[in-house]
Amino acid sequence: MTPLVLVHGFMGGSAQWALQAPLGAGRAVIALDLPGFGANADLSPIDAIPDFAARTLARLTARGVDRFDLLGHSMGGMIVQEMVRQAPDRVGRLILYGTGAQGVLPGRFEPIETSMARARAEGAAATASRISATWFLHREDAAHYPACAAIARNAGLEAILAGLAAMRDWSGEDHLPRVACETLVLWGDRDRTYGWSQIEQLWRTIPSAQLAVVPGCAHAVHMERPEIFNALVEGFLAPLGLSGGPPSEAQSKASL
To answer: Where does the record place the AB hydrolase-1 domain (predicted)?
Structure first.
């Protein structure tokens, strides 16, 4: 089966995909850590979405992963859009999850410049705890908020500011009509970061896009409703992976 590459979002990391272990029952799953975040928090951060994409493609090439399905969450959704732009022949199917084509997010819970100023004033740890709470419908009371916040707190101030700058300075709107791969746009209907206008733009502009909306979830559907999330991903990817044989148990994680 075609491997599935998972690209986390701002202040995320490979550990956030623990509840997606069932996706590895029939294919290799490569969950990466972006420079400056997660298990790669010690690496120099990147402040441009195209550079994140190029770095990820290069690391996949180095591992011998030439063709893959691709899932990107939030800022990771911006990165995977750039990966499709840079290497369209390498991507089988694309999942754009809780993301959009505009780096300056209309309706975001606060402007990016405000987030940058608050990060400088509050420090990295407080910023990570505060922002990651907005990803859950029930904020700090959500069952998986503590684990998510712990991953977010791996990021230092430099990485936080670089990630915010990367999003602020990026737009993928012009490329959407040229996305040729089958695409699933997946969204929680209570997402505080990406409003419906961003989701609708992806769905209506990408030629072969499907839409899945999960009710009663915010920005972290994969943690709030993992069974539904996993079923949607499996259902979308299954047509490419029908091999006629029994599924393998292969699953891999990599810090790229």
So the answer is: 4-231
Flag whether the pTM goes above 0.70: yes
Assigned CATH class of 4-241: alpha beta
Alpha-carbon distances of 87 from 7, 58, 60, 126, 203, rounded to whole Å: 16, 11, 12, 37, 21
Judge whether 148 and 220 are in contact, CB under 8 Å: yes
Q: What is the pLDDT of residues 206-232, one digit of tens each?
A: 999 999 999 999 999 999 999 999 999
- Rounded to 10 degrees, the C-alpha dihedral 68/102/211/215 comes to 120
Q: Are 29 and 241 in contact (CB under 8 A)?
A: no
**92 and 240 in contact (C-beta within 8 Å)?**
yes
User: pLDDT tens digits, residue range 137-173?
Assistant: 999 999 999 999 999 999 999 999 999 999 999 999 9
Q: What is the largest CA-CA distance in the chain?
A: 57
* Residues with Cβ within 8 Å of residue 178, at least 6 apart in sequence: 85
145 vs 183: CA distance, rounded Å: 29
Helix (H, G, I), strand (E, B) or coil at 111: coil
User: Is the CB of residue 33 less than 8 Å from the CB of residue 8?
Assistant: yes
Tokens encoding 25 = 């029952």
**Which residues are CB-contacts of 62 (< 8 A; sequence separation ≥ 6)?**
none
- List phi, psi (to 5°) of 43: -85, 155
